Task: inverse folding
């Protein structure tokens, strides 16, 4: 195929001169105008907006992108095809004919064509599995369990995170240990060492989401040459490596902040805390409306659907998460970016993809290209997911390739071949990063921790409401481990755990905190520790949490606001807090008092209102027994600002955030 | 910029034709008329509190009219295990105690008809195990479910609005497993099952109600007798807190009146009070086995006030100390003088 620029430049002029017959004179005139003018000041009407599309030569119909097309040696296929058949004289429909393959017409190997479908099935399967695990990240009771059966989730719902080697690398650097199930990530590393970034193209649920939106979202302007151009390797793809280096170095310095950018963490956080509750909200409203319809059938369907959803997909009540709007906004933003750069996230930002890309250089499986056979048709680029230069004439970027095999399927000339142990003449295996920028990124990662920690003193606690889940390790260790995956928030049966925003400093964005006003910590529940993949919340047992044989796990301490408490300040009986206090003996105890209370009505002849005496139970907290679960704060009937509230002081994980001397154990291991 | 070859020179002002004038003017008028009509149709005339004060009181009365008329049967039956007399023998199983008590009332057949949909309302309020006696004993619940099926019930539903996480309460109370084993349908208090009803009580005006518990042919109240730090003792009448959704923590500032309001709203077919193991201190949640006493007693009655008035004696309380009993008595829900009923001890 000849160079494209001649076509682009000459085709519009050549069209009419070559005797293109136009049915409508007006269109012809406009067409001339079109030819002679810059694309931005067409006189109206633009022919393809007149509704006479069928009468206009194809050259006129879509030249905008040809003009803006890259001035490079790759031909926009459509323009070339248009030159070959410059006219459509009749709007008659073409006969349905057999689909002809472009180019040589040689189809790709059957094994590859099948593998592409296997890949699609794998993507659907793993995405479905991810969503299923997310739905199951909630305790659902069962008839099968005995009363004394420990409450645990039956499935490894945090499995995707356990297999995440970026998370493992980060926490290994920060803690120098591999926490329990994170050893599974070796499996993913092994897969990468054999097949390259096959995780990105075949498994990653977040990648699948981007694959889908990259396919769905490009507008008319995002097709053809624009897409070819977008799918070429760009230098901005290096950003993910710089992010990776920064996060790993920040890990080495003691912060697992990289979890903010881990794709699995983002998927759990944004879908689990945002998309699912939103779907529940909308579904609840819609089905609630449907169950008001005066028709037995409609009501039955609505009720059964609600039953099913409440017991299988979400929980029996609506969940709310503090500050989720930002999390969902960022998800939408990064999904929308697919409109401009397909798989923007995977190519540009994903530190897990970068991590796997670093290791992909060792992969045994890869691409071989026969550059001589390439006709520069760019069909490989049209379908490329990783922007890894599959086309002829340039070297393939192994670290960027998602192994989706689209290029080999699309190639009409049998140029591209994936195989084991390929020759590496046409391959760049290592990430193409700049040494200085990489060092600067690493430096930024190193500086992050001191920068955030001089802003606030960790030992004095940023905020009295930074109440960590039960079993959480000491704050420094917590920040070394917490990857903000939000599994704990998703699993919490009472909606008690929420993503922090700036309560625990910039460093603690989206780490879990307990907001007792929304939900309290269920006394015998240890599920947050069960699902935590990195041990920021340790896997504790009920005995440890309740304090059977050991001191109980305290997450804070309750305090009374006597100015708001009904029995204390309004001489009104209440003590719901005492009723809900789950410890035994109860940490809230009541003092029986007789208190004077003024009658609300004035006496006769405008006298002062009469006084009377009421018997009251006034609640007190025993700080030695209080575990800070927040049940009292949750149920306090003083609705807006509770009369009893918990703060983090007294939490058993901290040696410094204490009130009672007896709880200070300077000898304990942290 | 190149010159534009074809620019039509149009007159700057073209007067619209009469026809166009009419059409455009008519369209504008139509939109105005439409908005006005719509606005008028949905016009909120305002007024503070309009709408909430309307409607009659809603009551759920599941009592069986004939049940009190047949004088050969007791109105209050107390079934005790003979353990108290002869130590060493195992106590009677809860199933047997429930059967004995119901026999004294004339059998379940007097309350449950063939084909009935029966709701059994135990106390599944807390994340506590049976040994803590904060929830109804699972064996008692299972016994009631099974006996209801034996009496010909089509479906027996077991449900409650829990205080703690319902999944946990239902499972760890043991009720889910035991009731499921005898065919009971377990319904968790999901948000969509609540509907606002007009209780029109002294303190309970409008409140979200757990529809599963009130949409039935017969309702059997199966509370657990236990100590309550604020109300002193609770069993049957207080058990109706479980039908309420919303923020029921508000009710404690007038707990006696709200209990009486609820008992006015819910009139069960039958009350079976579980006193197999009784929480005598630190109620209603307990949590310490030392706070419980084994009593192996079942109190069954057609009168929920009388059932409470008798059951409170089990933990050494007296009816005069429980204001909600007096309110229930005065409202005619039942009698607090249980000894005036036909009482049978078995």
Result:
């Amino acid at each position: 195929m000849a160079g494209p620029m001649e076509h682009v430049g000459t085709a519009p002029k050549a069209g009419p001169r070559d005797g293109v017959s136009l049915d409508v004179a007006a269109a012809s005139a406009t067409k001339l105008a079109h030819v002679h003018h810059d694309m931005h000041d067409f006189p109206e009407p633009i022919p393809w907006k007149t509704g006479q599309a069928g009468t206009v030569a194809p050259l006129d119909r879509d030249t905008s992108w040809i003009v803006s097309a890259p001035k490079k040696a790759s031909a926009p296929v459509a323009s070339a095809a248009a030159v070959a058949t410059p006219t459509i004289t009749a709007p008659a429909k073409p006969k349905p004919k057999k689909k002809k393959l472009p180019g040589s017409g040689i189809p790709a190997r059957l094994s590859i064509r099948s593998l592409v479908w296997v890949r699609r099935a794998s993507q659907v399967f793993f995405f479905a599995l991810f969503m299923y695990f997310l739905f199951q990240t909630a305790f659902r009771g069962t008839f099968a369990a005995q009363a004394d059966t420990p409450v645990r989730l039956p499935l490894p719902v945090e499995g995707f995170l356990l297999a995440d080697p970026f998370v493992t690398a980060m926490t290994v650097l920060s803690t120098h240990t591999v926490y329990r199930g994170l050893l599974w990530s070796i499996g993913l590393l092994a897969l990468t060492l054999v097949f390259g970034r096959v995780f990105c193209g075949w498994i990653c649920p977040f990648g699948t989401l981007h694959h889908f939106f990259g396919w769905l979202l490009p507008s008319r302007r995002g097709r053809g040459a624009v897409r070819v151009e977008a799918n070429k390797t760009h230098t901005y793809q290096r950003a993910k490596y710089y992010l990776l280096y920064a996060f790993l170095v920040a890990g080495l310095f003691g912060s697992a902040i990289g979890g903010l950018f881990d794709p699995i963490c983002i998927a759990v956080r944004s879908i689990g805390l945002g998309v699912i509750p939103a779907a529940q909200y909308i579904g609840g409203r819609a089905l609630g409306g449907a169950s008001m319809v005066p028709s037995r059938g409609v009501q039955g369907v609505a009720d059964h659907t609600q039953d099913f959803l409440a017991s299988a997909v979400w929980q029996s009540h609506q969940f709310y998460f503090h500050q989720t709007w930002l999390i969902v906004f960022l998800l939408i933003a990064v999904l929308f970016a697919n409109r401009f750069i397909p798989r923007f996230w995977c190519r540009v930002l994903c530190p897990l993809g970068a991590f796997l890309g670093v290791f992909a250089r060792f992969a045994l499986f890869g691409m071989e290209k026969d550059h001589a056979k390439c006709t520069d048709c760019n069909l490989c680029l049209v379908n490329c997911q990783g922007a890894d230069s599959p086309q002829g004439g340039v070297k393939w970027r192994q670290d960027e390739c998602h192994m989706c095999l689209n290029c080999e399927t699309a190639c009409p000339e049998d140029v591209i071949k994936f195989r084991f142990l390929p020759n590496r003449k046409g391959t760049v295996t290592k990430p193409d990063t700049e040494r200085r920028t990489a060092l600067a990124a690493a430096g930024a990662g190193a500086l992050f921790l001191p920068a955030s920690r001089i802003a606030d003193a960790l030992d004095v606690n940023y905020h009295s409401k930074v109440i960590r889940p039960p079993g959480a390790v000491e704050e420094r260790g917590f920040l070394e481990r917490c990857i903000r995956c939000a599994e704990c928030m998703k699993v919490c049966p009472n909606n008690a755990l929420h993503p922090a925003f700036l309560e625990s400093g910039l460093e603690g964005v989206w780490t879990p905190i307990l907001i007792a006003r929304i939900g309290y910590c269920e006394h015998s529940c240890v599920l947050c520790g069960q699902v935590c993949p990195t041990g920021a919340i340790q896997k504790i047992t009920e005995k440890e949490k309740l304090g059977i044989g050991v001191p109980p796990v305290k997450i804070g301490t309750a305090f009374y606001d006597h100015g708001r408490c009904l029995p204390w300040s309004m001489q009104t009986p209440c003590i719901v807090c005492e009723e809900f206090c789950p410890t035994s003996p109860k940490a809230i105890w009541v003092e029986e008092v007789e208190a004077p209370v003024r009658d609300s009505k004035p006496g006769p002849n405008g006298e002062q209102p009469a006084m009377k005496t009421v018997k009251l139970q006034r609640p007190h907290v025993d700080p030695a027994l209080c575990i800070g679960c927040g049940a009292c704060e949750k149920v306090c009937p003083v609705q807006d600002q509770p009369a009893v509230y918990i703060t983090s002081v007294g939490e058993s994980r901290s040696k410094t955030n204490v009130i009672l001397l007896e709880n200070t154990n300077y000898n304990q291991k942290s | 910029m190149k010159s534009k070859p074809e620019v039509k020179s149009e007159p700057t002002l073209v007067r619209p034709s009469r026809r166009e004038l009419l059409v455009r003017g008519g369209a504008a008028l139509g939109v105005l008329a439409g908005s006005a009509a719509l606005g008028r149709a949905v016009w909120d005339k305002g007024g503070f509190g309009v709408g909430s004060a309307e409607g009659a009181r809603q009551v759920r009365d599941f009592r069986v009219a004939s049940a009190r008329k047949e004088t050969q049967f007791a109105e209050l039956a107390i079934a005790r295990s003979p353990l108290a007399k002869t130590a060493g023998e195992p106590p009677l199983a809860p199933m047997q105690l429930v059967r004995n008590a119901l026999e004294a009332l004339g059998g379940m057949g007097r309350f449950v008809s063939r084909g009935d949909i029966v709701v059994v309302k135990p106390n599944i309020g807390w994340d506590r195990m049976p040994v803590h006696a904060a929830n109804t004993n699972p064996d008692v619940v299972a016994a009631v479910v099974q006996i209801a099926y034996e009496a010909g019930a089509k479906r027996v539903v077991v449900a409650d609005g829990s205080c703690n996480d319902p999944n946990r309460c239902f499972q760890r109370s043991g009720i889910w497993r035991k009731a499921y084993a005898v065919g009971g349908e377990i319904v968790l208090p999901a948000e969509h099952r609540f509907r606002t009803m007009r209780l029109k009580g002294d303190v309970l005006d409008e409140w979200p109600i757990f529809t599963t518990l009130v949409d039935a042919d017969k309702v059997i109240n199966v509370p657990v007798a236990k100590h309550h730090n604020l109300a002193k003792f609770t069993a049957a009448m207080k058990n109706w807190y479980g039908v309420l959704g919303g923020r029921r923590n508000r009710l404690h500032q007038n707990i006696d009146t709200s209990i009486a309001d609820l008992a006015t709203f819910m009139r069960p077919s039958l009350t079976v009070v579980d006193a197999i193991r009784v929480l005598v201190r630190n109620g209603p949640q307990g949590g310490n086995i030392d706070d419980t006493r084994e009593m192996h007693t079942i109190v069954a009655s057609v009168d929920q006030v009388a059932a409470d008035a008798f059951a409170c004696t089990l933990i050494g309380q007296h009816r005069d100390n429980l204001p909600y009993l007096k309110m229930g008595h005065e409202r005619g829900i039942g009698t607090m003088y249980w000894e005036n009923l036909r009482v049978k001890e078995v």
Notes: Residues 118 and 156 of chain B are 5 Å apart (CA to CA).
